[in-house]
Design brief:
cytokinin dehydrogenase; EC 1.5.99.12; six-stranded antiparallel sheet; binds 2-acetamido-2-deoxy-beta-D-glucopyranose; 18 strands; Vanillyl-alcohol Oxidase, Chain A, domain 3; alpha+beta; binds flavin-adenine dinucleotide
């Protein structure tokens, strides 16, 4: 049978590959083929590890839901090493899967390569810094393996910084650009993928290509939000702006979702030239005691918490909403920031008296989740399963979603974790990129992130059932929601996810990864290996 023959061929191919690696020398394949690019394979042999220590580390991710071991892990020293590995697989008779792994902070096994080779991207930056700032031209060239926190530190040395951020900075450049990279600056600057000028990509055929909006633009647009399907990002040129020094960081409490979203939408409609916030997000707290969440510790005093508890009990549903926002400033604007903040707050309708303000450095603000990470680690609830669900919801359906999901399916629960809810402007997303937004004509959509942790026996199953119910609700109510950090188990699911983009994406896949070896953990394209 064809499938069986393919499997056997694959296993022989893999075994021969590994024996070559182990022996550190080049031999003809037992299947009769000559080793393509044998010299390169020889050069990367010493960078491949097949021991359990190495493969176990690459067998799971932050989600701790999916587990699958690779046959080997490549620790590349240069992008050319990655190209050599991919060329070897792509041109062999029995190609094997290859998955770049950044921090492995995916939730559902997206960076795994069962039966294949995981590329430990972080090895690229080891020993030398792959971050080059071009201050005059206003950009930074960062290796795909670099952490955003390190990009921040390097650019700050020049008084500059990227404009668009994720909430958490211990993620790699290549990892977030393969999704979109969203956060509270996206309403103004778009997601991180909208702030990239140029990329170096090792494609699924092992070619090293420099691409941009002008040059090899089909690859450029494919890779941004491309879920690792078309190649490996080894360098990204990211736009910079003058870095502010400090941030006024505020939380505003609401009991009414309509008032909450109304204020959020007012804030994201403001131009950079108007008085407004530079960062706008939001959170929902469903029936919380407000003492149990570590994320509350840095913001609220004991007295605040008592007042908030009173607010919760007055809110009929038990749910309260917070706008989280920040206004940046520096020495030159320090004297006017209070006035500017006051002017914005006057336009908003949060519950009177429920404004909480902190004043922090820009880095403290951007790196704020680090503090939460430390708290969670210290009480042992960081390395637990994370059955996260992230959705983009069209603006017109967000109140219905709130009623049916937050006050319905999840109503009255006390989840461990956070629920984020904030709007973004559709026109800041470039639809030529692979990243997907709700396919409607609406100019605003919401990100709703159910970032919940499983801390007790049975939590994973319960939270997954709730996730299923949430997705079923959207389908039943015909809410055109899209998953962010998407996960589907069938091709049909992916077709619906990509919608009108599907045909194009399939074409680009055939062009840049014809053997379907790249990032199999996304489970989008069935490779001949997987179907065997
Ligand atoms: C605590 C926490 C907070 C988060 N906050 C946010 C947030 O605010 N906003 C947001 O947008 N996301 C957020 N995320 C999600 C995060 O952006 C994604 O999970 C991202 O994929 C993680 O990056 P990583 O470097 O760990 O990638 P990995 O998990 O290692 O990889 C993700 C996918 O990209 C592929 N990949 C990795 N590197 C490359 C590369 N160089 N080139 C091509 N493909 C590559 C992998 O094969 C895999 O398919 C958060 C995640 C965590 C754990
Ligand atoms: C694997 O890890 C163990 C424990 O940390 C260590 O003793 C051992 O030498 C490691 N093996 C390899 C091959 O690195
Ligand atoms: C940074 O510059 C050095 C020296 O020009 C170059 O070798 C390196 O590839 C650059 N790194 C990145 C990520 O652009
Ligand atoms: C909130 O939680 C408490 C205890 O966890 C429960 O008794 C109460 O009914 C919940 N409230 C709502 C509105 O579901």
């Amino acid at each position: 049978m064809a499938a069986r023959a393919r499997l056997v061929a694959f296993l022989i191919g893999m075994a021969s590959f590994l024996s070559i690696v182990a022996a550190g020398q080049i031999r003809p394949l037992p299947s009769g083929g000559q080793l393509p690019s044998g010299l390169f394979v020889h050069s990367i042999a010493s960078m491949i590890r097949t021991d359990r220590n190495a493969t176990t580390k690459a067998s799971s991710d932050f989600g701790r839901i999916v587990e699958a071991a690779p046959e080997a892990v490549l620790h590349p020293a240069t992008p050319a090493d990655i190209a050599a590995l991919i060329r070897f697989s792509a041109s062999s008779k029995a190609p094997f899967p290859v998955a770049p792994r950044g921090q492995g902070h995916s939730a559902r096994g997206q960076s795994l390569a069962p039966g294949g080779v995981v590329v430990d991207m972080r090895a690229l930056g080891r020993g030398h810094r792959r971050i080059n700032v071009s201050a005059g031209a206003g950009y930074v060239d960062a290796g795909g393996e670099q952490l955003w926190i390190d990009v921040l530190r390097a650019t700050l040395e020049h008084g500059l910084a990227p404009r668009a951020w994720t909430d958490y900075l211990r993620l790699t450049v290549g990892g977030t650009l393969s999704n979109a990279g969203i956060g509270g600056q996206a309403f103004r600057h778009g997601p991180q993928i909208a702030n990239v000028r140029e990329l170096d990509v090792v494609t699924g055929t092992g070619e090293l290509v420099t691409c941009s909006r002008e040059e090899s633009s089909d690859l450029f647009f494919a890779v941004l939000g491309g879920l690792g399907q078309f190649g490996v990002i080894t360098r990204a040129r990211i736009a910079l702006e003058p870095a502010p020094k400090r941030a006024r960081w505020v939380r505003l409490a609401y009991t009414d979702v309509t008032v909450f979203t109304g204020d959020q939408e007012l804030l994201i409609s403001k131009k950079a030239s108007e008085a407004g916030f530079d960062y706008v997000e939001g959170q929902v707290q469903l029936n919380r005691t407000l003492i149990d969440g570590p994320e509350s510790t840095p913001f609220f005093s004991g007295a605040d918490i008592n007042r908030l508890a009173g607010l919760v009990s007055r809110s009929g549903s038990g749910a309260i909403y917070f706008i989280e926002a920040a206004m940046y400033y520096d020495e030159a604007t320090a004297s006017s920031v209070d006035q500017k903040l006051e002017a914005v707050l006057e336009q908003l309708s949060f519950t009177p008296g429920f404004v909480f303000t902190k004043d922090v450095t820009y880095v403290q603000f951007l790196d704020r989740v680090r503090v939460e990470e430390e708290v969670l680690r210290s009480v042992g609830v960081w390395d637990v399963p994370h059955p996260w669900l992230n959705l983009f919801i069209p603006r017109s359906r967000i109140i219905g979603f709130d009623t049916g999901v937050l006050k319905g399916i999840l109503g009255g629960t006390n989840p461990v974790g956070v629920i984020l809810m904030y709007p973004m402007n559709t026109n800041k997303w470039d639809d030529r990129m692979t990243a997907v937004t709700p396919q409607t004509e609406e100019d605003v959509f919401y990100a709703v992130s159910l970032l919940r942790s499983a801390v007790a026996v049975g939590d994973v199953e319960r939270l997954e059932r709730e996730n299923e119910a949430v997705l079923a609700f959207c389908t039943r109510e015909a809410i055109r929601c899209k998953q962010y950090l998407p996960h589907y188990t069938s091709e049909d699911g992916w077709r619906r996810h990509f919608g009108t983009k599907w045909e194009r994406i399939a074409e680009l896949k055939a062009k840049y990864d014809p053997q379907t070896i790249m990032a199999p953990g996304q489970r989008i394209f069935q490779s001949s290996i997987a179907s065997a």
